[in-house]
Amino acid sequence: MWLEIFITILLIKLWQKFRPKIFVTSKGKAVLITGCDTGFGHRLALRLNEHGFRVYATVISESSAGAQQLTSKAQFADKMHVIGMDVTKHDQVQKAYDYVNLHLNEKGHGDYLWALVNNAGVMAEGPLEWGSPEQYELVFDVNMFGPIRVTRTFLPLIRKSKGRIVNMVSIMGRFSVSPFVWYCMTKHAIIAFSDTLRREMRSFGVRVVTVEPAGFRTGLADESNRLSSLCRLWRKTAPEIQNDYGFNTEDNLQKILDQTNDNFKPGTNLDIVVNDLCDAVHNAEPRVRYTPVDGIVAKMLVAIIMRIPSEWLDQIFWLTQKSAKP
Fold first, then answer.
1. Active-site position among 97, 136, 183, 290
2. Mutual orientation of helices 181-201 and 133-140 as an angle, nearest 10°?
3. Is 183 tagged catalytic?
4. DSSP 3-state assignment of 4?
5. Which range has highest mean pLDDT (9-23, 145-159, 261-275, 283-297)?
6. Which is nearest to 237 in space by CA: 324, 135, 89?
């Protein structure tokens, strides 16, 4: 029996890898992408616009440099809509929905919403005890409740088109790494959300996809941004906890980043991720899960980590990572 199961799985994997790709036409199709100020969302918005999709790109600020570049760099400017939207604000999400619904149905475009890409997110780095409740609640509000809030709002339009929902997650949604506890928790949650939603939406012809990068150098991974975030987290930490950890200078905080950098080398080719995001939107038969990784060695490490027992993984992290406590 086990041999038959193994052969079946192997054949399915080979078929998925080598089957010819069939791409849907972009004509008459619109895509909503959150978090397009910078990084993956910004690049994806321009790429899909170049492919002929009508793109609704949400940004935190419509006056930001990233927002202005979306308009100036778009190959088809009339098909690039930049919308100010904070995924943590229900009224802003509803306002964005009203805008999209109006333009799809009443402005004569004749398009329908084919895909929703939940890309907006924030990084959280630091030990579990550090920071205030408000700080980690924000991480959950953006990374977890944000995609849920946006999906619930736009799902009727996606269901109508029999389109797809693409959720940007992370490989850290599959296993947890210190000191990214809050970030890992939110990504685990979105994977569970995606798996459940995919099964619920199957009868409606809606596909749900996760894209789970294994660490890339975007604005979230910028060294100065990470240090500033860690400093804010430390300043909000209770004095008695600060005393236990023994840190009192920014130099000590830099050591945490240096240790993390030694263990996790982020990829630099962002197009690897954008290619998978684009395939998830454009492919008639997208994968359920994409795991973009930069480099052969990184791919091998991810493959090993995903398959070894948790006890082994604990030991590996213990040997390779220093505790935040000196």
1. 183
2. 30
3. yes
4. helix
5. 145-159
6. 135
